[in-house]
Amino acid sequence: MDAAESYTIIQNLTSPMVAVTTRVGDKLNGMVLNSAIRASLVPGVQRVSFYVFKGHLTHEMLVASGRYVLHLTSRDQWDEIWALGFASGRDADKLEGLSYSLSDTGLPILERCYAWMECEVVNVMDAGPATFFMGEIKEMGRGSGEEMMDSDYFREHMPDEWRAVYLENLRLAQEAAAAFTDPLDDRAWRQLRGEP
């Protein structure tokens, strides 16, 4: 199976679409990710995890602050997805013009999301071109969105005028990520197995 075909199969593992917002000093930023996962089976220990490419400003800000809000996006958040997912926070204020409020700790919460989780990073794993962040949920709430957006819905319903930009951004991200794929930092895996 060639890489293009296998990638379309792997895309089935991405759902729901989420937005991550964070803050360092006065700088607010955010991005869209095509997946996040529950990272605990214990109801009293609520954790979530996701991957962020190391070249993103949001990655730098997550490392600096250790705090973020993870949003389950809703199907009516097209403006937020465009603002947070199709541009760099290095070039513009990505939250300008979006409806959000600030949490008690000053983190931006998107108002039209389906639900939000304010989190603190509790662990990370090197994933080559990305970092796998695990966060513990400190606060959680509902937004005004009624239906969650998932990756399949996004790809099927994205505006036609976005498609070329989306595909070019994906191509550029894949090229940039390819430069980071080797070697992985596998010390934690070797330590877990009792290897030197």
Keywords for this entry:
alpha+beta, 196 residues, 9 strands, single chain
Notes on the protein architecture:
- Helices cover about 30% and strands about 30% of the residues.
- It has helices at about 5-10, 55-65, 80-85, 150-155, 160-180, 185-190, and strands at about 20-25, 25-35, 35-40, 45-55, 65-70, 100, 110, 115-125, 130-140.
- The strands form two sheets. It has a seven-stranded antiparallel β-sheet with strand order 2-1-5-8-9-4-3.
- The longest helix is centred in the last third of the chain and has 19 residues, at about 160-180.
- The radius of gyration is 17 Å and the shape is globular.
Gap from first CA to last CA:
35 Å
Question: Over the alpha carbons, how many angstroms does the gyration radius reach?
Answer: 17 Å
User: How many strand units?
Assistant: 9
Tally of contiguous helical segments = 6
- Describe the largest sheet: 7 strands, antiparallel
Beta percentage is 25-35%
- Please state how the strands of the largest beta sheet are arranged side by side: 2-1-5-8-9-4-3
Task: Provide a brief overview of the structure.
By secondary structure, this protein is α+β, with helices and mostly antiparallel strands.
Helix/strand layout:
Layout: H1 3-10, E1 18-24, E2 27-33, E3 37-38, E4 47-53, H2 57-65, E5 67-72, H3 78-85, E6 100-102, E7 108-110, E8 115-127, E9 130-142, H4 151-157, H5 160-178, H6 187-192
Antiparallel strand pairs: 1-2, 1-5, 3-4, 4-9, 5-8, 6-7, 8-9
